[in-house]
Design a protein that fits this description.
With 296 residues, the chain is α/β, with parallel strands linked by helices. The chain has 3 domains: 2-89, Rossmann fold (3-Layer(aba) Sandwich), CATH 3.40.50.620; 117-193, Tyrosyl-Transfer RNA Synthetase; 217-295, Structural Genomics Hypothetical 15.5 Kd Protein In mrcA-pckA Intergenic Region, Chain A (Roll), CATH 3.10.290. The protein is built from 15 helices and 9 strands. It has helices at 2-10, 13-17, 20-27, 34-54, 66-80, 117-125, 129-139, 144-156, 162-175, 178-192, 197-201, 205-211, 222-226, 231-237, 244-252, and strands spanning 58-62, 85-89, 217-220, 229-230, 256-258, 261-262, 269-270, 280-285, 289-295. The strands form 3 sheets. It has a 5-stranded mixed beta sheet with strand order 3-9-8-5-6. A two-stranded parallel sheet has the order 1-2. It has a two-stranded antiparallel sheet with strand order 4-7. Helix 4 packs across helix 5 (66-80) and helix 6 crosses helix 10 (178-192). The protein starts with a helix and ends with a strand. 24% of the residues are buried.
């Protein structure tokens, strides 16, 4: 690969071996693969390219990236005669020991196209108590006295999750907007609170799909709804319930909701007037089981 050969002319093996991150791995029991050893050339060349083409002079990262980043500053100095800088901070970890980074499952992007504002809000809202206490100090600009007061209040009533709520509010407003935060709170009420049908109907299609991401989805035909789809048949044929008998029993006991309203016993069919955005139905089975029905 040209970039590695090009970088390799400027960076010697002795320079690469002198890195603390390399020496520790070589001295340990696991050793180091050739790919891992030469990765600093790849990351260093990335920095060089950004310096040359985007006028990038600073690379930031976790403290574990110091060696790779400084290889980039050295390559810029040797190859371009330029000056660039490295900035690192202690590696942020979760309470369970997992690394907080983009390669870890369940982490978030700042780009709303990759992590919607609603998902972003939910990530911080669902933080463990220990993580919330750490992250509110790292990721927010709240005064120390306010943070300490929040932690004290949280410890007194952890079930209210005041710390997580404040963390989610501060970061969602900071990264996205107050409007996105307000939507995220409203959307959370749909799945986890007492939101009304009116709230559900107020969502755009994009917002509805954001909220329902991860909710099981089933499809029915438009013709079935237009002619009136028998409710019990619908619940069984979409596998929301395993049988008509169980569907009928749950519905008649008030255990099935349509678009956040319990389905009355006198309502026996689904029609086009029940649709959200002219193509969706939200079925709730019991308290926590949701199904998004798409009309195609």
């Amino acid at each position: 690969m040209n970039f590695k050969r090009d970088a390799g002319k400027q960076i010697t093996v002795n320079y690469m071996m002198a890195k603390d991150s390399v020496k520790k791995r070589l001295e340990g029991d696991t050793g180091m693969s050739f790919t891992e050893f030469t990765y600093q050339l790849i990351q260093g060349y990335d920095f060089y390219w950004l310096y040359q083409n985007k006028n990038c002079k600073l690379q930031m990262g976790g403290s574990d990236q110091w060696g790779n980043i400084t290889t980039g500053t050295e390559l810029i100095r040797r190859k371009a005669g330029g000056e660039a800088f490295a900035f690192t901070c202690p590696l942020i970890r979760k309470a369970d020991g997992g690394k907080f980074g983009k390669t870890e499952k369940g982490n978030v992007w700042l780009d709303p196209k990759k992590t919607s504002p609603y998902q972003f809000y939910q990530f911080w809202l669902n933080a463990s108590d220990d993580d919330a206490k750490t992250w509110i100090k790292i990721f927010t600009l709240l005064p120390v006295a306010e943070i300490e007061a929040l932690i004290t209040a949280h410890d007194a009533a952890p079930h209210q999750r005041a710390l997580q709520k404040k963390l989610a509010e501060e970061l969602t407003c900071f990264v996205h907007s107050r409007a996105d935060y307000d939507f995220a709170v409203k959307a959370s009420e749909i799945l986890f609170g007492n939101a009304t049908t009116e709230v559900l109907q107020s969502l755009s299609e994009d917002q509805l799909l954001q909220v329902m991401e991860g909710v099981p989805t089933v499809e029915i035909s438009k013709a079935q709804v237009e002619t009136g789809y028998d409710l019990v048949s619908f619940l069984a044929e979409t596998n929301i319930f395993p049988s008509k008998g169980e569907a009928r029993k749950m519905w008649q006991s008030g255990g099935v909701s349509l678009n956040k309203e319990k389905i009355a016993t006198e309502k026996t069919t689904l029609t086009s007037s029940d649709l959200l955005q002219n193509k969706y139905l939200l079925i709730q089975k019991g308290k926590k089981n949701y199904f998004l029905v798409k009309v195609v």
